[in-house]
Structures are given as C-alpha cells and as structure tokens.
Design a protein that fits this description.
single chain, about 450 residues, alpha/beta, 13 helices, about 40% helix, globular, binds phosphoenolpyruvate, binds manganese (II) ion
C-alpha cells in the first residue's frame, strides 16, 4: 500500500463539499490538535468489523446501520444516545429472532456531524446565508456569524464522538444490552402501539428461550453483550486525514475516527480526494450509489477502493428511490457480480425518497421507504444475490419527521415534533415497524 498523500495533495485532486474556512491558521491549529489526539477506535476492531461484513458479503449475515442524518453537539446526552441505541437493539432483535439471521450492528453515530448539501446557500424570508453543513462545520442558527465555518468545531466533533462512543461502549458491554433486558427496551409509548405489542410478544418468546437455556446451564457471553460499531460519512478532509494513523501492530493506515466510514453520493468522484483518501485506509468502507451510477462507475470504484477484492472491505449502499430501484438496480448488481467483485449490497431507502410537504417540511413517506426495501429484496432475489442490509436514518424518539406508517402520521402532523437539523428520520415506532417488514422479507 502506497503512503498516504498529505492534505495539500488531497485538496489538489479536487474535493467536493468542503467548508471554505476563512482562517488558514485556525485550520492548521485544529488539525495539529487532532493529529495528536488518541484514536477513537482501534485497528483491530475495524478488522473484526471487516470480518463480519465479509459474512454479509457471503450472504451469511445481515447489516443494520442506522442513526441520525446529522448528529448535533446538543444531542450528546445520555437520553438521546441511549434511545438511539435502544431502537437499534430492538430492530436487531426483531431481525435476528424473526428472520433467524445474524445481524451486524453499526450506528450512524459518534462522528456523523458533517453534511454534504445540494445547495451552498439557504434563503429564508428573502435573506440568503451559507447553508448549514453540520455541527462539524458551522452553526444551525440562521445568522451570518453562525454560518461561518469554524475549524475548531472539528476538535469539538472529536470530543463529542469520544463521549458518545464511551457511553455506547458502556451500554453495550455493561449490562444494558443484555438479552434479558429485551423487554425493558420496549418503553411505554412503544408498547401502546400495535407494533410495540408485536415486539412484546416476540420479547416474551425470547425470554422463555433464555429461561430454558439458563435451566440447562447454558449462559454464553453473547447473551450479555452486543458488538456495536460506529460509522459516519468521511466528508471533511482535515478531520479524516488528521485521524488517519499507522497502526503499530500491522503497520497499515486506519482512519481511527470510526470503525466504518463511507463516501457519499456527492463525493464519490473516481479521481477525487475522498476516494483517494479512503483507498489508503484499511477500515471497512462504504460508497453510496444513487440512480445515476453506471455499472462502469461502480466497477471502477471497487477496483480503486478494493484492489485486492477482499470480502468485507467494500459495501455498496444503493439509494435509488422507490420508483427507480426495480429498473435501475438489476444492471448494476448484475455487472458488478459478473466482474467477480466482492461487495456487500446494502439498501438506503431514505435518500432517494425525500420530498417537501405542503407545510414546507422535508419529509419521506414510510410506504416509499418500505417499498424501496421491497424492491431491493426483489431485485437481489431475482438475481440470486444477497440483499445484505439496511441503512436508515432514524431516532429513538417519538418525532414527527416522516409521514405514514401504522400510526398514519400526516403531513399536517409534521410540525408537532420535527427536530432533525437535516433529513427526516423514522421515529421509533416507524423504525420498529420497518424491522418487522424486513424480517418478513428475509424469511420469504
Ligand atoms: C446521508 O447519508 O445523509 C447522505 C447525504 O446520503 P447521500 O450521500 O446518499 O445523499
Ligand atoms: Mn441524510
């Protein structure tokens, strides 16, 4: 593996969606701080995740990846992190128990702070300001001061991610994720919904299976803890580059800002800086592929990002939209498969299904989300390839950001609890409902 290019050479390749920092010295100071900061994740953990994703690639496991579109610094609270983790654990239990497949769990968390935007500017009531690019870059407040990119925020991202990951590690290994808690993860407001009751029934079955195991003296470690991994879009070069380190054990470079990092739909240029940087790290990585992706594009990306064709190294996250997936996906999957490329195929049913409601809120319909996942399964089933996973934007709270679902959230309800600073997320009931749908798809 050739050496990692320096930051200036990366920028020289052309990097889409980067902040325009007004003060180069301040950027240098932030990068210097980050370069000496301890790793957030260890290389060995990244290798373990690559192994698990190799099982996904082989069709032996299913990936569940989820969390906010954009984390915020204000969202780094025990309640918020626990609620997200809880809904992911509930979904994973539904998928594991109802579909009988091992589930690899990755949070869009502990680093998901930088956002690509379709427009550089935002206009409200005749006032135009630079777009909000995530807490990693600038402030959400609609004032000229707040929207100036501040590189010190990258150090704040590091600290916020460290705090989040610390809590996640405590929750997942310290008893909270113990399978015997499976019922307590179902809080009152979820229990009162039909889908919450369905979960309750499933939790009861698991409980009696566990009681049986305990009675015969079987109590494996797996009942008491879960493996959980962090992920985010590798977007701001300064941050990802400063946290790319040579692992002393293997002498290989890893981006120690998260276990899994991905390249977004807007930054996947083959000769661009993001693809170049991620081609040098050893973490498992993903690339988002939208409906304009040609099979040749995907094959070229795979050749550059995974030249040794290592299973588990590369995940393609398709996000075509419910209306396009059945027509668009087959050719892509067919040609990538025919080229002999080892990739995990994962469905992001969110980003191709966004629309603006009459009330002005950016939203998604639960039915479109479920339909895209169904289309994804149909295509892979037809081709004999493995529908390897689900990548979703969700929250553990009872927000009103996506319409539809069993609770029939309407467009006019969106204002009551719309809290996302970026894209609309499935709320807890919708997330659980989707997990039951996907479990059915996996079983059939
Ligand atoms: C995202 O995952 O929030 C995102 C911006 O996705 P994409 O790159 O697929 O548009
Ligand atoms: Mn998003």
């Amino acid at each position: 593996m050739s050496s990692i290019p320096d930051l200036a050479s990366l920028h020289a390749l052309g990097a889409a969606q980067q902040p325009s920092y007004p003060d180069a010295a301040a950027v240098e100071a932030a990068v210097t701080t980050l370069r000496t900061a301890p790793p957030l994740v260890f290389a060995g953990e990244c290798d373990d995740l690559t192994e698990k994703l190799a099982a996904v690639t082989r069709g032996e496991a299913f990936l569940l990846q989820g969390g906010d579109c954009a984390e915020t610094f204000a969202g780094v609270t025990a309640d918020n992190v626990r609620n997200k983790l809880r809904v992911l654990l509930q979904m994973a239990v539904v998928l594991t128990y109802a579909a009988k497949v091992p589930v690899v769990k990755i949070g869009r968390l502990a680093g998901q702070y930088a956002k690509p935007r379709s427009s550089d500017e935002e206009t409200r009531d005749g006032v135009t300001l630079p777009a909000y690019r995530g807490d990693a870059v600038n402030g959400y407040d609609f004032t000229p001061e707040s929207r100036i990119p501040d590189p010190q925020r990258l150090v704040d991202v590091y600290n916020a991610s460290a705090a989040t990951l610390n809590l996640v590690r405590a929750f997942t290994t310290g008893g909270y994720a113990d399978l015997r808690q499976v019922s307590t993860w179902n809080t009152d407001f979820v229990r009162s919904s039909p889908i919450g009751q369905r979960y309750e029934a499933l939790a009861g079955e698991i409980q009696s299976a566990l009681d049986f195991m305990a009675a015969i003296g079987a109590d494996p470690d797996e009942f008491h803890r879960v493996d959980f991994h962090s992920s985010h879009e590798a977007l701001v070069l300064e941050y990802e580059h400063a946290l790319t380190r040579i692992d002393s054990r293997t002498n290989q470079p890893y981006d120690v800002s998260g276990h899994f990092v991905w390249i977004g739909e807007r930054t996947r240029q083959l000769d661009g800086a993001h693809v170049e940087l991620l081609s040098h790290i050893r973490n498992p990585i993903g690339v988002k592929l939208g409906p304009t992706t040609s099979a040749d594009d995907a094959i070229a990306l795979a050749s550059k990002l995974n030249p040794e064709n290592t299973p588990g190294r590369l995940t393609f996250v398709t996000r075509f939209g419910a209306k396009k997936i059945r027509d668009g996906l087959p050719e892509l999957v067919e040609k990538v498969t025919a080229a002999g490329l080892q990739v995990a195929w994962v469905c992001d049913p969110m980003h191709g299904n966004t629309f603006t409601a009459s009330s002005g809120y950016k939203t998604r319909a639960f039915e479109d989300v479920a339909d895209e996942v169904q289309g994804f399964f149909d295509v892979h089933r037809q081709l004999g390839t493995w529908p390897g996973g689900l990548h979703v934007e969700l929250t553990g709270d009872d927000v009103t950001e996506c319409v539809g679902g069993g609770e029939e959230l309407a467009e006019m309800d969106l204002g009551s609890r719309y809290e996302s600073v970026c894209d609309p997320r499935l709320n807890r009931v919708q997330s659980l409902e989707l997990a039951f749908h996907v479990a059915e798809m996996l079983r059939s």
